[in-house]
Design brief:
Helices cover about 25% and strands about 15% of the residues. A hairpin with a 6-residue loop joins strand 1 and strand 2. It starts with 18 loop residues before the first strand and ends with a helix. It binds zinc ion. Zinc ion binds next to loops. The site of zinc ion has 8 residues, from loops.
């Protein structure tokens, strides 16, 4: 394994949380899910009751609507906004 600690991830020095706890609005079951780093998950089937979750209007993915943590692209967006607001 070669360690590439610099330059390989240009904008990845912003830490993002890749695990989010999805809570089913129908049965209330919570399940810890791993999010794809650069994608949005539109559909999620509750492992407990089988309900198909979709994002709420205005949300980009089910993690933004039902997760404890929003999806990575949104996390980055917020961090960038926070960073530029600080200047
Ligand atoms: Zn459910």
């Amino acid at each position: 394994m070669t360690a590439t600690s610099c330059c390989s991830h240009a904008d990845a020095d912003l830490p993002v949380e890749l695990h989010s706890t999805l809570t089913c609005p129908r049965c209330g079951a919570a399940s810890l899910q791993t999010m794809p780093e650069d994608a949005c998950l539109w559909f999620f089937t509750c492992p407990s009751c089988g309900a198909e979750l979709r994002p709420l209007p205005g949300d980009c993915c089910v993690f933004c609507s039902y997760g404890s943590v929003p999806c990575p692209p949104i996390q980055r967006q917020r961090q960038q906004q926070a960073a530029s607001a600080r200047r």
